[in-house]
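yo, Peptide methionine sulfoxide reductase MsrA is done. seq:
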Amino acid sequence: MATPTTATAIFAGGCFWCMVHPFDQQPGIISVIAGYTGGHTENPTYEEVCSHTTGHTEAVEITFDPTVISYAELVEIYWQQTDPTDAFGQFQDRGDSYRPVIFVNSAEQRQIAQASKDRLAASGKFNKPIVTTIEDAKPFYPAEDYHQDFYKKNPLRYMIEEMGGREQFIKENWKGE
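structure:
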């Protein structure tokens, strides 16, 4: 049996607990790891990242088979999980460690992400400008084990976290279709 072709995508969009499930459920996803990226400290802990002194943001690193699901499809799923108009956090999660960022691994990923962001901005779906940044990938550090697969280990708490700020966001920001 042939080994599948793999690629990686890194997205930050608020609490990483809420970012795992939507990607983990897609065909072609090999793994979704919660972790930290974009900062200046090696191997940061959750407590260090929460102190807002490391420069890291909570993110997910997705390993996928691009013959089954494309990077462009992953970017479209990403937009559905975040508030792309809020540079200072996501929903009830506030601060730089929750900022929305697409971390790109190549010029091709940058082009795809930028084109998607441009389409979203032109769509008129939001009342405010799209402020999600697109940045070069930095070292990614997996979060502690208790953060991995949180939605499976703690389904009730995950549901509370996931839905906590999204209803209010939709009411305030989304124009609908």
